[in-house]
């Protein structure tokens, strides 16, 4: 599979994960958060708890 196709599939998976979280009451705080030690796909919050989500497709 091409690198472009893999990236497209990954982005679709992230969109599905965001939709899933929102339907369950989570508020999306950030997407593709980057810092010096790496990257995380989704940062969300629900009832005062912050969750970090790494999406695998």
From TrEMBL:
GO terms for molecular function: nucleic acid binding. Pfam families: UPF0102. It comes from the Bacteria. Belongs to the UPF0102 family. This is YraN family protein. It comes from Aerophobetes bacterium. The lineage of its organism: Bacteria, Candidatus Aerophobota.
């Amino acid at each position: 599979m091409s690198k472009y196709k893999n990236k497209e599939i990954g982005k679709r998976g992230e969109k599905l994960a965001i939709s899933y979280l929102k339907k369950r009451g989570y508020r999306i705080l950030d997407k593709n958060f980057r810092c010096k030690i790496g990257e995380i796909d989704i940062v969300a919050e629900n009832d005062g708890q912050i969750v970090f989500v790494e999406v695998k497709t």
